[in-house]
Design a protein that fits this description.
Elements (H helix, E strand, L loop, with lengths): L4 H4 L1 H16 L1 E2 L9 H7 L10 E2 L2 E2 L5 H18 L3 E3 L5 H12 L5 E5 L15 H5 L1 E5 L10 H11 L3 E4 L10 H10 L3 E5 L4 H5 L12 E5 L10 E5 L4 H12 L5 H14 L2 H23 L3 E2 L8 E5 L9 H10 L2 E2 L1 E3 L13 E5 L1 H5 L4 H16 L4 H16 L7
Parallel strand pairs: 1-13, 5-6, 5-7, 7-8, 8-9
Antiparallel strand pairs: 2-3, 4-10, 9-10, 11-12, 12-15, 14-15
The structure holds D-serine.
């Protein structure tokens, strides 16, 4: 007899039910999160989770792969169309796996990479000492400029010339300005280096032509599929045809075994959705919302690193308004008021990453709910009130009620 999750495992069932309420009643400003469509959710929750499919379409190490072959090929073809890529591998389980596979494909332990550090807005997998990228390879970092907070391309150029890295990575997790991938590839190629562009955060903007695409210029482009792209949690690699075999071998068997076919189905659906004209309108609104939110935060006295945003996120330096409030305390106070954010180190951070002096705010998730400029102004006000009274229970409770009321007007696409 069929038994429901509720009957079999009430503990997991009830945690999921509570999570549904949390997502429904909180303003989600974590820049890397989003809400998938019900079609993506259905694909990811499908029987495809039962299937092993090591290998690639029509070249598997298991029988019974005729249906998953169709699905993986659809995901590949749609991703190629969406980004104009020569070769696509949709199997990486995450962005980290995608980056690791690129390194495995073209680097040997001890090779030199030139990257943006985590502290300057980069990512763990861009050479952090506690990540394998930092353990296996010799890492040189370029930074953002102290004066402007923007990527210092001049420093990148000088370091590329002096250090002769084999690979330059470009891409960020906490950087609010447009990235010049063409310039980076010129710098790299003039020194014989390859380029890995990690567009995990801005993939939706790139796919819709609202941000310069690295695909024509860079040998490798990696992304996650769950941030601005609004698909399932996962990764993907695009590359020039000449590296296709090396990339495929680096993913499987190099760094992964069986692909997650239910997630690859979700990716295929996500790419189909992203090819529709309304997806570009959505990406446009993400950018507009981020610009208004940043403008209001600045009007409320906060410093935004780089002075504003060109994309879906911003990095708020709290110290201009609340000198002694850490990012961690700000994150907790906002969460108590049903506003979800993450603390973030800012360039030239003086506190530990666990405390931090900044908050990263992003608009992909609230835009998916249908929130627009008017709501961004309200949200900036909520943030200011909470952060000015982080320990005042009555203020926090008042804002929490306002947040729940606002969220009720903007239902989620997938519950
Ligand atoms: N952890 C992700 C983010 O929040 O940006 C990057 O992988």
């Amino acid at each position: 007899m069929l038994q429901s999750l509720k009957e079999i495992d009430f503990a997991v069932f009830s945690a999921i039910e509570k999570e549904k309420i949390r997502q429904k009643e909180q303003i989600e400003l974590i820049a890397s999160e989003n809400f998938v469509s019900s079609a993506v959710l259905e694909a990811v929750g499908s029987v495809l989770t039962n299937k092993y499919a090591e290998g690639y379409p029509r070249r598997r190490y298991y029988g019974g792969c005729e249906n998953v072959d169709v699905i993986e090929q659809l995901a590949i073809d749609r991703a190629k169309q969406l980004f104009g890529a020569e070769h696509v591998n949709v199997q990486p389980h995450s962005g980290s796996q995608a980056n690791s596979a690129v390194y495995t494909a073209v680097l040997k332990p001890g090779d030199k990479i030139l990257t943006l550090s985590l502290e300057n807005g980069g990512h763990l997998t861009h050479g952090h000492p506690k990540n394998t990228s930092g353990m296996l390879y010799k890492v040189i970092h370029y930074n953002v400029s102290v004066a402007t907070g923007r990527i210092d391309y001049d420093q990148m150029k000088l370091l590329a010339k002096a250090e002769h890295p084999k690979l330059i990575t470009i891409g960020a997790s906490a950087y609010s300005r447009a990235i010049d991938f063409k310039l980076v590839s010129e710098i790299a190629h003039s020194q014989g280096a390859l380029v890995l562009a990690d567009i995990a955060h801005i993939a939706g903007l790139v796919a819709t032509g609202l941000h310069q695409s690295p695909v024509p210029y860079c040998e490798f482009v990696t992304t996650t599929t769950h941030k601005t792209l609004r698909g399932p949690r996962g990764g993907m690699i695009m590359c020039k045809e000449e590296f296709a075999k090396a990339i495929d071998s680096a993913v499987f068997p190099g760094t992964q075994g069986g692909p997650l076919m239910h997630v690859i189905a979700g990716k295929a659906v996500c790419f189909l959705e992203a090819l529709r004209p309304e997806f570009k309108q959505y990406q446009n609104q993400i950018i507009k919302n981020a610009a208004i939110l940043a403008e209001q935060m600045i009007a409320n006295g906060y410093h935004i690193v780089t002075g504003g945003t060109d994309n879906h996120l911003m990095l708020v330096d709290l110290r201009t308004v609340h000198e002694s409030l850490t990012g961690k305390d700000a994150e907790v106070a906002l969460e108590n008021a049903n506003i979800t954010v993450n603390r973030n180190v800012i360039p030239n951070e003086t506190r530990s990453p666990l405390l931090a002096s900044g908050l990263r705010l992003g608009t992909p998730a609230v835009t998916t709910r249908g929130m627009k400029e008017k709501e961004m102004v309200q949200i900036a006000e909520f943030i200011k009130v909470v952060l000015s009274n982080p320990n005042d229970k009555s203020t926090i409770s008042d804002i929490k009620h306002k947040v729940v009321d606002l969220c009720a007007k903007f239902p989620l696409p997938c519950q």
